[in-house]
Amino acid sequence: MGLSVDEFFKEHSGNVGLRATLEPTGSPDRVVVTPWVQGAGCLCAAALELTKDTISNLTPTSDSHYCCGKMLRVVALDFKTGTLPDIFVQLIGRAMQDSGGERRSCTAACDDQERECIQGCEGQGPGCKMGCTRRHEQCIQRCRRG
Q1: Fewest Cβ atoms nearer than 10 Å: which of 10, 72, 74, 120?
Q2: In a domain, 51, yes or no
Q3: How many domains are contained in the chain?
């Protein structure tokens, strides 16, 4: 038997992949998460210090990035809370604009994020890709609002 729309949204709204670099902090239960965008690299202005238990899943990627004198491995992150990825999308848009990028750069970041999200859906149901598309549309709307 199939799922209702509400069951589908409840099941698929929590995990959103984000490409980022991770660095330790002085605290054993905290980590610095810095969003990473293909073609732009680390967005240091969007880095956040979070508790490790905020991250539900971490998948190493084949990408690495030299930033702030260190070679950092790029990872795909899933978060336990549904609101945290939205915070990063907003911070990414702001960081792209603050670094002299145009709104086109913001939408390009949205496009890259959608592409990476869809690639992460391999082997999952069609709901995963639909979630990527929905988040992409929300990201574009935020870029247009500035």
Answers
A1: 10
A2: yes
A3: 1
